[in-house]
Structure formats: C-alpha cells, structure tokens
Amino acid sequence: MYDRVRCGARTLSVRACGRFAAGALLLAGLAACANDTATQTARQDAADHQNCLDLGFEEETEAYGNCRLKLRQVRATEASRNRSNVNVGVGIGIGL
Q1: C or N terminus of the chain, fewer CB within 10 Å?
Q2: Gap between the Cα atoms of 58 and 56, Å rounded
C-alpha cells in the first residue's frame, strides 16, 4: 500500500518514516527545552550567589546558606502568586 523508503538505517514505509522523523523532532525539542531549564537554573544560581555575597554574607557559612534559602523561598512565593488559581466546582447537598 505504501512505498518503502530509506529512513536512517532502516527501510520503512513512507508513513512510518514520517512518524519516526516526527518523534525525533519531538525528542530534540524536549532536549532543547531541558537545556534551557538547566541554563536558567544555572543563571539563577549564579545571581543568588552574587546577591548573597553583595549583601555581605561569606560563602560556606550558615548565614550564607540562610540567604540562599530565603531567596529561593521568595521566588517560590512569587511564582505561586503568579500562577492562576481557578477552581470550579459543582456541589449538590441534601439537608436532613
């Protein structure tokens, strides 16, 4: 029914080769997304480090660790505020 074509190291139908290519593109896109997340995390880590040093905390002290934790907590609080919280519910009650 479908013509066979060379798809990488295999010979597949045109439809199967298209699916294979689409899957490969999807995986490449996910890998790029993960890389962006890792890059963003590394940048945030460097910024937090510099902020705590600028505030006068010395590296590898309890106060420095608390500074880093506080910055992470502030970011998490801001992120939760920025998320839209829409809850829809339907309830039926019977009073006896």
Answers
A1: C
A2: 6
Q: For 40-91, write each residue's pLDDT tens digit.
A: 889 999 999 999 999 999 999 999 999 999 999 999 998 888 876 666 777 7
Domain assignment of residue 69, yes or no: yes
Q: How many C-beta neighbours within 10 Å does residue 19 have?
A: 13
Total domain count for the chain? 1
Determine how many CB atoms are found less than 10 A away from the CB of residue 52.
21
**Rounded to the nearest 5 degrees, what angle is found at the Cα of 83, between the Cα atoms of 82 and 86?**
130
Range of the domain at 28: 4-81
Taking the CA atoms of the chain, what radius of gyration do you get in angstroms?
A: 26
What span, in angstroms and rounded, lies between the C-alpha atoms of 74 and 50? Answer: 16
